[in-house]
Every structure is written in structure tokens, then in C-alpha cells.
Write a structure and sequence with these properties.
Length: about 110
């Protein structure tokens, strides 16, 4: 598994992969993101706790943050036990954005 995940990064060891991936960030770009963005925020996120909130707070454009609490069964990283609920909320958000059409250019 490590080898397969490391291939796109061109590294050979688990340590090198984790070091490489840790360098990836959008922090220097968030002030330029103006397209509507949905940020999902599962309770119990164990890989990047707090990252959803930090991203949401840094975005200047239209945004919505959707939480997935344990009480709904759609918590933890990637909402593994609540995929149907996750997908329903994401597609509802997309439907609302696409139904309104593209923004007017001025």
C-alpha cells in the first residue's frame, strides 16, 4: 500500500511519503478562492482535526460548512459509515448551485 501511494510523489519510503505530503498546502491560496465552496467537517476527524474550520474561516468567497456528527453516523475521516448521508448533502449543495446558473459577469 505504501509503495502504491508513494509512486505519484516519486519517493520510496513511508517516511519520505509523509514528509512530501506534509509539504502540500493551500494556505497561501485560500485568499484567492472565490468560487462557491462546500467544506465538509466530520466530527472525530483524526488525520486533520480542525482543518475544515481553518479552511472555511480563510475562504473569502461564498462558502458553506457542513458538519457530520457522530449522532448521525456520518463522522470520522471521509464519513465512512455515512456515505449515503454525505453524498446526499453534497449533491443537494451542488443541485442548489447549479440550479441558480452561472453568476452574472459585471
Amino acid at each position: 500500500m505504501w509503495r502504491r501511494r508513494a509512486e505519484p510523489c516519486g519517493v520510496a519510503s513511508p517516511f519520505a511519503l509523509l514528509t512530501e505530503v506534509a509539504a502540500y498546502t493551500v494556505a497561501h491560496l485560500t485568499d484567492r478562492i472565490t468560487t462557491p465552496l462546500l467544506v465538509t467537517d466530520p466530527e472525530g476527524e483524526h488525520f486533520w482535526p480542525g482543518a475544515s474550520r481553518r479552511l472555511y474561516d480563510a475562504l473569502p468567497g461564498p462558502k458553506e460548512r457542513v458538519g457530520f456528527p457522530a449522532a448521525e453516523g456520518a463522522h470520522l475521516h471521509c464519513e465512512p459509515m455515512g456515505r449515503a448521508l454525505f453524498e446526499q448533502r453534497v449533491f443537494d449543495w451542488l443541485d442548489a448551485r447549479l440550479a441558480s446558473g452561472p453568476p452574472a459577469r459585471g
